[in-house]
Amino acid sequence: MKIFFEILNSLSHYVNGMPKNRLSLLFFLFFILINQTYSQNLQLQNFSISDGLPSTTINDIQQDQIGYLWLATDKGYSKFDGVNFTNYKQENANCIFIEKDKIYIGLKNGLLVLQHNKSNFFESKEILKIKSIGNKIILATIQGVCELKEDTIQPLEIQHQIDFSIIHDIISFKDIIYIASIKGLWSIDKLYKPLKMDKLIEENTTSLLISSNQLIAATEIQGLKIIDDHTVLKNIATIENISSIKRVKDEIWVASKKNGLEILDANTYIFKRKINKYNAFISSQINTVFKDKQNSIWIGSSNKGLYKYNSTTETANPKLFIENIAVNYKSIDSLNINKLALKPNENNISFSFKTIDLKNPKNIEYRYQLNNDFTPWSPQNKVDFANLKAGNYQFTVQSKEGSLLSKKISFSFFIDTPIYQKAWFIILCGAILCLLLALFVELHIRKLNKKNQQKIDTLKVENHLLTLEQKALQLQMNPHFIFNVLNGIKALGNAGNSKELNKTISQFSVLLRSVLNNSRLEEISLQEEIDTLKNYLDLEQKMNSMSFKYTIETSLNNIDSEEILIPPMLLQPFVENCIKHAFQPNKTAAKIKLLFEVRNRFLHFTIEDNGIGFHQSKKEKVKSNHQSVALEVTKERIQHLSKYNSFSIEEIKDKNEIKGTKVGFKIPLKTDY
């Protein structure tokens, strides 16, 4: 501006004699020349919807620790890396506050908190400003001051006028809380139940700033107020409709909703320059100003988007950050880990890293290594490692911008050895295998022994059955019976009754032949057994001194008796026992009944007599010292034929009078078809 006035002074003598119309034209051309020169010196760059912004209304600008710019707009919030805008649709976003790895976004309908790719929303009144006071997140809303609790937003009861006012800003300065509201500026000693409260300014106060150990309060119309120790020390006249005030190096930048920007000296508060639509290609409706880590100035307007003002040409080495680490495609919660321990199956690792250079965003390149040499430089800022083997790893990454290199950043992690590859597991498996092998051998030996024992038991049973069969054969024909038959044959011969003699000899020979033939067979037909029994009973009728009758009945369910197979020599001992012991010598009308029945896949045998009864016959045997060996042998044979045997001997009674004996048993039905 000094140059501008010097040029005007030097031209004053020259233009005194010129006509007025030429003089006006000269001044107009000179103003345009100066305006273009001044605009070029500003080095302004504009970003709008065509560049990716969600809206041309920028309410607030902040920068996170990685370097991303976060923009609050009337159509949500946006993240900018110098090239691309990543937009997130929300209710009108008014302000942004960033504290370490947490990002707080004040919305028209509440508060959004972002951390580690997760978000939490808290409903509240419209939020205009977010500050950290006493390690607590304090919110300036359109209806008082609130505090963010763990799971809710709680209004603070300070003072009636404050609690129901629009709060533009809040700040802590020298242990005093200052609250800028539409109804003025208040100072209180504490947020919770304040004891001391003063109202310092009556006018609408829009923004607060601490600079040079003083508090600067911006009013909507009456300019800036310099405050210290509860007192307004100085009034600074400046542009009206102030939206915000920010300190940029040694300057105070005053943003106006209608008059662009006015820049003051930060120490003396003397006017330095203006930036508006009259001297630069910039909007006059400015909401906020922000200086990034590379000293570039970002200006947010309410109608023409975002402006970047490169006020310096300083260069510095780029800074590199690891943005995200994903294990098996799932992000881990924290990157502040000295060494990440992973399970054997967690062997797919992804790294995202980023260097933000808002001046030269397209010149960033990266290289990395995983225990080996570095890869070539590349613009790729993400890498995936799949199916890594167990062991210790160190991932190292570095970025560069031109010839400037960032510091190397490393991250260590360890993938545990699968359990099946660990020494103790191999030893344990070997021991278990040996134990199982020994157990298998032991079980096999036991099985063989059991099998051999079963064979031995089977052989014993078979041998016992053979013994029983031999005994049964030996006892099949009672010697006394044979002696009687032979004596009878002799008597018939002596009497000269040749016809009866021949018949008896024939019957006896058939009986002996059937007995001898059946003794060599394991099974005979039921019909053969019946024929043998008939032969035996006929001979007994002839030779026995006692007269008796017998009947043989069958009920075989239409099965031919020739087709039913039974072990030989089963019934003869019972019949013989019946003849010898069931009847008294003087018994008349003695009867023996044999019944063969097929029921439920079993062949049932029944022998009935009308003798003295089972118990009485046992007493008679005791008196005569007779032991029915054949009967006991046959009973044991029947018990070995089937586990379903049901051998029974019972007396037949009628009104408590013994009418005889009934012997019954069953064997499984077996046929030859």
Automatic annotation (TrEMBL):
Keyword annotations from UniProtKB, A to Z: Membrane, Transmembrane, Transmembrane helix
Gene3D superfamilies per record: Histidine kinase-like ATPase, C-terminal domain, Immunoglobulins, YVTN repeat-like/Quinoprotein amine dehydrogenase
Domain Signal transduction histidine kinase internal region: 469-541
Coiled-coil positions: none
Signal sequence segment: none
Residues passing through the membrane, by range: 423-445
The protein's name: Signal transduction histidine kinase internal region domain-containing protein
Organism name: Polaribacter sejongensis
